Amino acid sequence: MYLETPSQQAPRKAKILMLHGTGQSAHTFQTKMRYLHDPIARAVFATSSITHEYLYPGVVEFVYLDGPIPASEIDACDESYMKPNRLPDSWLWGYGDPETSELKGLEHTWKHLAIVLNEHGPFVGVIGFSAGAAWSVILTALLEQNNKMNPHFQVKHPPMQFCIAFSAFMFEHQTYEWIYSRKIQTPVMHFIAALDTWVTERQSLKLVDQCANAQVEYFQGSHYIPRGPQIKELVTKFIRKTTGWALERDQVDPEWIDV
């Protein structure tokens, strides 16, 4: 796990969980997302100063997490869909075809994420790319449901205030229907690449349909994290809107404040 900690002074932090894509790592994702740190932090502070200053007086901590499965351990014959590279710092959340099959290795991911939520939370939001985005939406859904169906995923954590998903997709095999059994109420921002051939528009829009408060943004590009002033502005406005929405949805229990 890679932790990005801007400051050691403030006693309370707004933590955001960051989940990389297939065959990547916490470090590589941090490199791609660093340009959004300041806009996100300013958005959280702007909302906090108006509505809930007692929660986030000045620190946003971005918690970058490695997937639990080393890509180097996956046998080539098993890589039916997700074909990670063989770099030393290359990790997976699972492998297989998310459109047609049960994914392998998910028992490790469930346990891994549960430990992080229980021991390093609470988190106000989650941001992910590709497979990490798929898991970001899954976490958002399950924390709303307080679902007890998975013995590997037993957590005590409040619902996320927001989710940002770059090139996300659903796990479409019937095994995972329980995950999407209810419409996701937490606001989710979906970025969809117009030229993406790795995660298709159909896959992303199928997941969008499961989100009651979805915001969909297209960009002209392929399977990567978009950059530019417009992306910063969209993310900033979304964070400001959703953190205020979360406080209207439910009062934050002091038990969940990180000190």
UniProtKB/TrEMBL annotation:
The keyword Hydrolase applies. Keywords: Hydrolase. GO terms for cellular component: cytoplasm; nucleus. Pfam families: FSH1. Residues 12-231 form the Serine hydrolase domain. GO terms for biological process: secondary metabolic process. GO terms for molecular function: hydrolase activity. Gene3D superfamilies: alpha/beta hydrolase (3.40.50.1820). This is Serine hydrolase domain-containing protein. It comes from Aspergillus homomorphus (strain CBS 101889).
